[in-house]
Amino acid sequence: MKDIFKALNDDTRREILELLKKQDLTAGEIADNFNISKPSISHHLDILQRADLITGEKKGQFIHYSINTTILDDVFTWLLTLKK
Amino acid sequence: MKDIFKALNDDTRREILELLKKQDLTAGEIADNFNISKPSISHHLDILQRADLITGEKKGQFIHYSINTTILDDVFTWLLTLKK
DNA sequence: AAGTTATTTAGATATTTGTCTAAATACTTA
DNA sequence: TAAGTATTTAGACAAATATCTAAATAACTT
């Protein structure tokens, strides 16, 4: 839960999730959407992956990233308890 | 939105919300629940208030804090768009 | 095998964040 | 008005974070 909120607490990472919502993308394709170096994007992908919000699958020399929204259910549940 | 995710990205602040969910509390009563100095709690309350997650109303020398869950709807909406 | 491409890892740096103590503000009470 | 209580503001500091460049790893191509 801690990791999820941490992962969501960044504009770039939230944008990455919005991109991956539309379609799977490689690390490079994701990086092309930002004015940030590739190592920095790689770092963001790592944080998202640790939070289980995305998964990466290596295909040849590319890594294809996909969003994993099931983990968001935990967030929904926690937020709902606040709303009584 | 940015402010909300920032506010939620901290154990202490999430616990404060859980306390305020049960009942309104003064700043001092909130502080009594943590091993953290009062100024630090005051800082957390400020961050929660800036995110509109809580409101504070002064009554005499006390400030009574209440949770505001309506703002969470924005988070729900954003999270739901990710789930397609 | 050598060069190119895709991505990550390592190390450095500036900014942000959470915490503290001390001081300030505001209200209450004697 | 003076002393006490509740809370915040100010300033300092250590830890965490986002970013960068340079180097390493891995796979493809010729």
UniProtKB/TrEMBL annotation, chains A, B:
<dbReference type="InterPro" id="IPR011991">
    <property type="entry name" value="ArsR-like_HTH"/>
</dbReference>
<dbReference type="Pfam" id="PF01022">
    <property type="entry name" value="HTH_5"/>
</dbReference>
<protein>
    <submittedName>
        <fullName>ArsR family transcriptional regulator</fullName>
    </submittedName>
</protein>
<dbReference type="InterPro" id="IPR051081">
    <property type="entry name" value="HTH_MetalResp_TranReg"/>
</dbReference>
<dbReference type="InterPro" id="IPR036390">
    <property type="entry name" value="WH_DNA-bd_sf"/>
</dbReference>
<keyword id="KW-0804">Transcription</keyword>
<keyword id="KW-0238">DNA-binding</keyword>
<dbReference type="InterPro" id="IPR047796">
    <property type="entry name" value="SdpR-like_repress"/>
</dbReference>
<dbReference type="GO" id="GO:0003700">
    <property type="term" value="F:DNA-binding transcription factor activity"/>
</dbReference>
<dbReference type="InterPro" id="IPR001845">
    <property type="entry name" value="HTH_ArsR_DNA-bd_dom"/>
</dbReference>
<keyword id="KW-0805">Transcription regulation</keyword>
<feature type="domain" description="HTH arsR-type">
    <location>
        <begin position="1"/>
        <end position="84"/>
    </location>
</feature>
<dbReference type="InterPro" id="IPR036388">
    <property type="entry name" value="WH-like_DNA-bd_sf"/>
</dbReference>
<dbReference type="GO" id="GO:0003677">
    <property type="term" value="F:DNA binding"/>
</dbReference>
